[in-house]
Amino acid sequence: MASVPKPSSEAARQAFYQRMDRDNLAPLWEVLHALVPPQPHSPCKPGYWNYQAIRPYIMESGLAITAREAVRRVLILENPGMRGQSCITRSLYCGLQLILPGEIAPSHRHTQSALRFIVEGSGAYTAVNGERTVMHPGDFIITPAWTWHDHGNPEGGEPVVWMDGLDIPILALFDAQFAENYPEETQPVTACEGTSRARYGSNLAPLDPVAPFGKTSPIFSYPYGRSREALAALAKNGDPDPCHGWKMQFTNPLSGGPAMPTIGAFIQLLPQGFRSMPYRSTDATIYSVAEGAGNARIGDETFSFGPKDTFVAPSWLPLQLDAMEECVLFSYSDRSAQQALGLWRERRG
Ligand code: GTQ
C-alpha cells in the first residue's frame, strides 16, 4: 500500500517554487487564505473629503487648464488605501468636475457608464444623445454607456462643479473598454430639453417598449426638487428605517430595477437627531452630502460632515450615521452589479 509522502523541508519547498516560477506556475496553498477570505478583505479604506478644504484646488484647476484642453477637468477622489489607482472603491471611480462659464467639455463616448451629482452652481448643461439638460445642485444625471456626451456652461453663468461616478474599474476588470471622440466639439441638439423626461419620467411610456439605452434608464436627469419632495412626503408618513432613515433608489422606469446596470444610486433623508443602527453591506458606498451636517462612523473612524462633503464606506465595515441637522445624502455603489450577479449581502446591527 502506498504511504503518504513525507513533506519536503521549507528550503526544498522554496527551491521547488522557484523552479516552477520560471514556467509561470505558483502554489495555491501559499495564497489560499488571501484568495478566499472568510469575509471581505479590501485595500479600500474609509475616506472623507471636506468640500470647503478641497474647493480651492478645484477652482485652481480652472486656472491650470481649460476644459477643452483637459477634455474633462476633474480632480479624482482617490481612496486613501489605493492611491495612484484612480478609484474610490475597488469597483468605482469618483471625481469632481469643474466647468467655467463659456467653456465646453468636448463630445465623446465610452463603454463606461457615468453618473453626475451636482454639487455647486447652476446653468451648465450636459448633452446626451442629442438632448441637453441643465444642471442644478442635487440633480442626479446619467450618461448611459456608449452615448455621445458633452458638457457646456454658457457665457455669463457661474462655475459649476459636479461629482462624477463611473464604473471605470469594472470595465477595466473585464477589459471591455472602448472610447471614441465625436468628430465635432459638441453634438447636434436633436430634441428639446425635457423630451426624455416627458417620454419616460411622467409615469407614462411609449407603446412600443423600446429601451433606447439598453439596461440603463432612459430618463437621464432626475431633478433634485422631485427627489426632495418625495423624501419630505415620506418623512411625514411612518417611521424612518432604523439603518437608513428614508432611503430610496433611483430606478429605471422601463424595468423597475436600478437606473444603471452596474451602479446603484440612492437618496436618503435623516431627520434631525437621528442616529442610525450600524449597517454593513458588500457594496462599498460613496456619499455626497446634499443637505445638513452630522457624523459618519465607518469602522473605527468618525468623520464630521457638512454640505457638499464626500465620504466613502468600504465593503462590510459597519456604518453609523448621526444627523445633527436634517440631512439629505446622495450615494452610489456597485450594488446593481452585485445584485445582478447574486453576490450582494447586507447585515443590520
Ligand atoms: O464626463 O465623460 O470624471 O469620461 C472621467 C471620465 C468624467 C466624462 C470623468 C470621463 C468623464
What distinguishing features does this structure have?
single chain, 349 residues, alpha+beta, Jelly Rolls, six-stranded antiparallel beta sheet, 22 strands, 19% helix, 30% strand, binds 2,5-dihydroxybenzoic acid
Descriptive report:
It is built from 8 helices and 22 strands. By secondary structure, it is an alpha+beta fold. The protein has a single domain (about 45-349), classed as Sandwich (Jelly Rolls). The strands form 5 sheets. A 6-stranded antiparallel beta sheet has the order 1-19-16-21-14-13. Strands 2-3-10-5-8-12 form a 6-stranded antiparallel beta sheet. The longest helix is centred in the N-terminal third of the chain and has 14 residues, at about 50-65. The mean pLDDT is about 95. The structure holds 2,5-dihydroxybenzoic acid (GTQ). 2,5-dihydroxybenzoic acid (GTQ) binds next to strand 3 and strand 10. 2,5-dihydroxybenzoic acid binds next to strand 3 and strand 10.
Short description:
This protein has 349 residues and is α+β, with helices and mostly antiparallel strands. The chain has helices at 10-21, 32-35, 51-64, 67-70, 168-174, 195-200, 224-235, 335-340, and strands spanning 47-49, 74-76, 93-99, 104-110, 114-120, 125-128, 131-134, 140-143, 149-152, 160-166, 179-181, 221-222, 246-249, 264-270, 279-281, 285-291, 294-298, 301-305, 310-313, 319-323, 327-333, 346-348.
